[in-house]
TrEMBL record:
Chain segments annotated as transmembrane: 20-42, 80-104, 110-127
Protein name as annotated: GtrA/DPMS transmembrane domain-containing protein
Keywords tagged on the record: Membrane, Transmembrane, Transmembrane helix
Membrane topology: Multi-pass membrane protein
Family note: Belongs to the GtrA family.
Domain of life: Bacteria
Cellular compartments annotated: Membrane
GtrA/DPMS transmembrane domain sequence ranges: 19-133
Chief location category: membrane
InterPro entries found in the cross-reference section: GtrA_CellWall_Glycosyl (IPR051401), GtrA_DPMS_TM (IPR007267)
Amino acid sequence: MQGKVLAIIKSEDFIQLIRYGLIGILGLIVDFGIYSTLTLMTEMRVELANLISSSCGLINNFLWNSYANFKVHDHLIKRFVEYYIVGQITTIFTTICLFIFVSLLRQDKLLVKAISTIIATLIQFGINKAITFKKG
C-alpha cells in the first residue's frame, strides 16, 4: 500500500497537478488582484470585472504552464487558443455563478468568486492536460 502511494506521489501526472495548482495560485493572485481592484475601487459590474480579470489570469497561467509545467513549446498559438477557449468556458461558469449568487442572491462576491474558481480550476486541469498540453 505504501509503495502505491509513493508511486502516485512520484508520478508525472501528480507532479504536474501540483505544479498546475501552484501556477494556479499565481494566476489567482493576478485574477483576484485585478478583480478586487475593478470591483472594489470602481463601480464596474462583477460580471465584466470577472471577464477582464480571468483573461489576465489565463494569459499568465498559459505562459507558466507552457514553459514550467508541461514543457511544450511547439504550436504555441494553437495551444494558447485552445487554453484560452477552455479558460473562457470555465469563465462563463464562474460568471454565471457570480450573476446568480452575487447579483441575484446577494452573496459575498469574493467568496463566490473563490469557490467557483476552485471548481473551474479542477475542470481546466483535466481538459488542458488531455488536449491543450498533450505532447506529440
